[in-house]
Automatic annotation (TrEMBL):
The keyword Plastid does not apply. Residues 328-417 are annotated as: Disordered. InterPro entries: AH/BAR_dom_sf (IPR027267), F_BAR_dom (IPR031160), FCH_dom (IPR001060), GMIP/FCHO2-like_FCH (IPR054713), MHD (IPR028565), Muniscin_C (IPR018808). PANTHER family: F-BAR DOMAIN ONLY PROTEIN 2, PROLINE-SERINE-THREONINE PHOSPHATASE INTERACTING PROTEIN 1. GO terms for biological process: clathrin coat assembly; clathrin-dependent endocytosis; convergent extension involved in axis elongation; synaptic vesicle endocytosis. The keyword Phosphoprotein applies. Keywords: Coated pit, Coiled coil, Endocytosis, Membrane, Phosphoprotein. Belongs to the FCHO family. It is found in: Membrane, Clathrin-coated pit. It is a peripheral membrane protein. This is F-BAR domain only protein 2. Residues 424-697 form the MHD domain.
Length: 699
């Protein structure tokens, strides 16, 4: 909170920092507008270049069997240019919205400057009084020391009296500034607290508005990418429909000189030929020449026989350009793969020849993150995997907690910077789970729990070159183990295929669509060429829960609310049986809202009281089996009230773990060609890990 971090300071310059931070918001808004405007310029230039390219396709040679292909290129390129021009239009409208926000922001900042003028005056007053107080203190100390020195040196009474007058005056001045500083400080703190909250509200509103703008920008770009993907697939379909036989047939029909063999035809009395000729690219009309050839008359006087040759017809045939098409993909066209970002369905490739052929499994239509009486939340995003290879493979420096946590996992050590295609290629896997729970007082039967998870694979950057250089890289297959506790599994349909007919409920086989994976990694490499590894989300899952037994931390709360005091007790118990393997809960925090005008708080262990939010916060050490009482304990607090009684509120709890999961799910590579260099596991409390209850006489 701004009022906590900017209220104090040696020079009381928190106001100045917050005010300039507010002004920086205007700079950010303008820079975002400039960024989008630059994107518009790039897209517009690209669109015009595509239009020019489409026009050039019309001028290419119309002779030969390849001629009909140019029409396909022309139409496809024109549509591509239109897609990018449509994005230009959308982004130009977004720029207008950003500019409108910049103008409104400037007006709001001007109004805020007027509203906080009194706070600025209070800041200047306390700075001035602080300086005067320091000088008066130094003067008082100096006069007092001088008086003591004169006494020790045996100065005359007259000199001592003069010095005493100076000391008295210095004392009065120092005392007056002490009193003035106290009054000024009270006024400063009051106004500064109000102003700090005002600045925080402005910043929160600013960030929210900027995120909305970015969301609009992202949606516009995403829509364009989907259109381009559909257009690209339309082009692929047209190329596949234009077979070699059809092109040969068109040439034969348009340029054929006759089906009869020479020597079989009788003497012709006359030959009529219609030729359709072209001269130059500037001519739009055909010019027809009628040529009549009369053979020499024979002397035997036989009747003249007439014969004709079929007219030669020129046509290029029709090519269908449908507005939408089903995406198809085969191993023989590894240069037109569909990226996993599109909305179309990819026909799964066959499983590796070393295993029985399995059909693509059907997924349940039930959503992974269903709505219930507690929340509609999703698990936290998977953190990047930790560095287990060299600079060409894996790295990480973030975690779910506010501070960095050590890497937990198993590693087979570093691999060479340059990967050889004949080596077993290193990959890493991470399981990240989120537990949401709602406790109803001390009744374990009323605990509602939902656990969700993500599985992420990480590939070293060096693997992309191997994938792209090989016409058919080894299929990456793995077995998901301990799946009996999973209620639902949702694979990434663009990348991952599985066998839904397996009889073993505790395992499930998966294999990746290697062309789609290669295209996805190549795209990420183009966007982030300096990255040493690339993460791929392959599946999500939901864990079957068994109420309070599924939570790693069991909780119960008791309230006793009176007119002048509120007593609170929170009992907690570490539950190692909910995780595999057993591991500590780190960064445990309990946040309790208490209303009724709290004037004083006494707590065991010590908690932090936030008067602005009316909340108390406990920060606990790691909780594990090695903790006191094997991880069980209580949080107690008594709150003195000025406007009681309090109303029992919902408590929020946060924690995380590195090295364990709640589901016990694991993976095992199947076949050769790859090796697992790191297996990382973690879980954390979700957005909803709450408890509430009201029992008047139980605290």
């Amino acid at each position: 909170l701004f009022c906590l971090y900017f209220l104090q300071g040696e020079k009381n310059n928190g106001f100045d920092v917050l005010y300039h931070n507010m002004k920086h918001g205007q700079i950010s808004s303008k820079e975002l507008s400039d960024f989008i405007r630059e994107r518009v310029t790039i897209e517009e230039t690209y669109s015009r270049s595509m239009s020019k390219l489409a026009k050039s396709a019309s001028n290419f040679s119309q002779l030969g069997t390849f001629a009909p292909i140019w029409d396909v290129f022309k139409v496809s390129t024109e549509k591509l240019a239109s897609c990018h021009m449509e994005l230009v239009r959308k982004l130009q409208e977004l720029i207008k919205e950003v500019q409108k926000y910049v103008d409104e922001q400037a007006k709001a900042h001007k109004k805020t400057k007027e509203e906080v003028a009194s706070t600025l005056e209070a800041v200047q007053n306390i700075q001035s009084v602080s300086q005067a107080l320091q000088k008066s203190k130094e003067n008082y100390n100096s006069k007092t020391l001088e008086q003591e020195r004169m006494r020790k040196e045996g100065a005359t009474q007259r000199d001592l009296d003069k010095t005493g007058v100076k000391v008295k005056k210095a004392t009065e001045v120092y005392k007056s500034f002490v009193e003035k500083y106290a009054t000024t400080k009270t006024e400063f703190e009051q106004k500064m607290a109000e102003t700090a909250q005002k600045f925080q509200d402005i910043e929160e509103s600013h960030i929210l508005h900027m995120k909305e703008i970015i969301q609009s920008y992202s949606c516009s770009v995403e829509d364009t990418h989907k259109q381009i993907e559909e257009l690209h697939q339309e082009f692929v379909n047209n190329m596949e429909n234009t077979s070699v036989e059809s092109l040969i047939q068109k040439l034969a029909e348009s340029k054929g000189t006759g089906k009869e063999r020479p020597g079989k035809r009788k003497h012709n009395n006359s030959l009529l030929i219609h030729l359709n000729l072209y001269d130059s690219e500037e001519e739009d009309e055909r010019r027809k020449f009628h040529v009549e050839i009369k053979p020499v008359q024979p002397n035997n006087g036989t009747h003249q026989h007439k014969a004709t040759i079929d007219e030669l017809k020129a046509s290029i045939g029709n090519i269908t350009l449908s507005p939408s098409a089903t995406v198809r993909h085969t191993h023989t066209h590894t240069h037109t793969p569909t990226t996993p970002l599109g909305a179309a369905t990819i026909v799964p490739p066959p499983r590796p020849s070393s295993r029985p052929k399995l059909g693509a499994g059907k997924l349940s239509e039930r959503p992974l993150f269903y709505k219930n009486g507690v929340t509609n939340s999703s698990p936290p995003p998977a953190a990047p995997l930790a560095r287990a290879e060299s600079s060409s493979s894996l790295s990480s420096n973030t975690s779910l907690s506010a501070s960095n946590t050590p890497t937990v996992g198993t590693s087979r050590g570093p691999s060479p910077v340059t990967l050889a295609s004949q080596d077993a290629l290193p990959i890493a896997v991470a399981f990240t789970e989120s537990v949401n729970a709602y406790f109803k007082g001390a009744d374990p039967s009323k605990c509602i729990v939902k656990i969700t998870g993500d599985m992420t694979l990480s590939f070293p950057s060096g693997i992309i070159k191997i994938f792209t250089s090989s016409p058919s890289p080894a299929v990456l297959s793995f077995k998901l183990k301990n799946t009996s506790k999973l209620e639902q599994i949702l694979p990434n349909q663009h990348l991952l295929h599985s066998d839904s007919s397996q009889s073993d409920t505790n395992t499930r086989d998966f294999w990746l669509n290697m062309p789609a994976l290669t295209a996805y990694l190549r795209k990420n490499s183009e966007q982030n060429p300096t990255s040493s590894y690339y993460n791929v989300d392959v599946l999500k899952y939901q864990v079957c829960s068994n109420g309070i037994q599924s939570t790693p931390l069991n909780l119960a709360v008791y309230w006793k609310c009176g007119p002048t005091t509120t007593d609170l007790r929170v009992d907690y118990r570490y539950n190692p049986e909910a995780m595999q393997p057993h591991g500590p809960l780190s960064s445990v925090q309990v946040l309790v809202p208490v209303n009724g005008g709290v004037t004083n708080m006494q707590s065991i262990p010590n908690a932090i009281w936030n008067a602005d939010q009316n909340k108390s916060l406990w920060k606990l050490n790691d909780i594990s089996e090695k903790s006191e009482n094997e991880g069980s304990g209580s949080l107690r607090a008594k709150f003195e009230l000025s406007d009681g009684p309090s109303i029992p509120a919902t408590l929020a709890v946060q924690f995380f773990n590195e090295g364990s999961t709640l589901s016990g799910v694991d993976m095992e590579l199947v076949g050769s060609g790859y090796r697992l260099s790191l297996n990382k596991k973690r879980f954390a409390s979700g957005k909803t890990f709450h408890l509430s209850f009201y029992r008047p006489n139980s605290a």
